[in-house]
Specification:
Blueprint lengths: L1 E12 L6 E13 L4 E5 L6 H7 L8 E6 L2 E3 L9 H7 E4 L12 H11 L4 H14 L16 H13 L5 E5 L7 H18 L2 E5 L3 H7 L2 E6 L2 E6 L1 H6 L2 H4 L6 H12 L11 H12 L1
Parallel strand pairs: 3-8, 3-9, 6-7, 7-8
Antiparallel strand pairs: 1-2, 1-4, 4-5, 9-10
Helix pairs in contact: 3-4, 3-5
The structure holds adenosine-5'-triphosphate and magnesium ion.
Length: 286
């Protein structure tokens, strides 16, 4: 189980008749249902969001087939009757998810999707309260209008609405964009904790290579609608592929390069944060 792409292409129509934008071209890919933390990267317009929108059947392929948890998604709209079930199993946190808040209170907003997927009122409420606690959303906020919250709080409420229906796989399209660094870290640490404790697969689109390097266990690089790299982050940043795709080197690796060059150290790239780096530097002097 999981998500499999078989020769999937996606074309968007343009304003000119019979002219299409090729957003995805012949994608073959398998994602496990459990234990993956995948970063989807590539320059702007490379097809990341389009690929992610196929992972819970928000978009149908123009050709090919996507298998989502055993549900076969094909180009024919009327042949895909179980879309609601698919979307419950694979939760999608859009870019700026707070734009979709609309209920009178925060609690109702967090309950909304769960109820839509068939949870009874009490069950939806129970899940919403547990998720609010997990996300450290103060209880006093639950009765307020979501529109009276700060940007960071609104983002958390929107994310809570997805986590509350307990999807098996979580899709994140730049979930921390536009937030202050502390809230960014708080939200990413939370997704990481969910991944560690529940083993749910998480797929993250990000332009922030520090985030990618810190959390991902597998990186997919898209270029003009094709997957040009699928593998380990250390391999990616040790090759020229990251530069060819306009990705910046994570800060911790830039520091390693600097220390190796200037101080003649022999640090390798399997170091994922500043603390580990300091420990390794100290070790080299012991
Ligand atoms: N709704 C749409 N209609 C027409 N063309 C589209 C549409 N959405 C995306 N495209 C085009 O498809 C290609 C892939 O776009 P997509 O949004 O998937 O890229 P992306 O990698 O997510 O970019 P970004 O990093 O800017 O979010 C681009 O050429 C884009 O212009
Ligand atoms: Mg995008």
């Amino acid at each position: 189980m999981g998500i499999s792409f078989k020769e999937v292409s996606h074309y968007y129509p343009t304003s000119k008749r019979k002219v299409y934008t090729v957003a995805l071209e012949n994608i073959n890919l398998h994602i496990n249902e459990k234990d993956e933390f995948i970063a989807l990267v590539g320059k702007t317009g490379s097809g990341k969001s389009t690929l992610m929108e196929h992972m819970n059947a928000l978009l149908l392929p123009t050709s090919g087939e996507v298998d989502i948890m055993g549900y076969k998604i094909t180009p024919k709209k009327n042949k895909n009757p179980k879309l609601k079930e698919v979307r419950k199993r694979v939760g999608f946190v859009f870019q700026f998810p707070e734009y979709q808040l609309f209920e009178e209170t925060v609690l109702k907003d967090i309950m909304f999707a769960g109820k839509n997927f068939g949870f009874k009122e009490e069950e939806a409420k129970e899940h919403a309260l547990a998720t609010a606690r997990l996300l450290k959303i103060d209880e006093e906020f639950l009765k307020k209008s979501p529109f009276n919250l700060s940007g960071g709080q609104m983002r958390k409420v929107a994310i809570a609405g997805i986590l509350a229906y307990d999807p098996d796989i979580i899709l994140l399209d730049e979930p921390t964009r536009g937030l202050d660094p502390k809230t960014q870290e708080e939200i990413m640490d939370l997704f990481y904790e969910i991944h560690q404790t529940t083993h749910k697969t998480i797929i993250l689109i990000s332009h922030d290579m520090d985030l990618v390097y810190k959390y991902a266990t597998r990186v997919l690089v898209l270029n003009q609608g094709s997957i040009v790299f699928d593998g380990d982050k250390v391999d990616l940043f040790s090759s020229s592929i990251f530069e060819e795709n306009h990705l910046t080197k994570p800060e911790v690796l830039q520091m390693i390069d600097y220390l190796n060059c200037k101080m003649n150290l022999k640090l390798d790239y399997h170091i994922y944060n500043e603390k580990e780096l300091l420990d390794q530097v100290v070790k080299q002097y012991e």
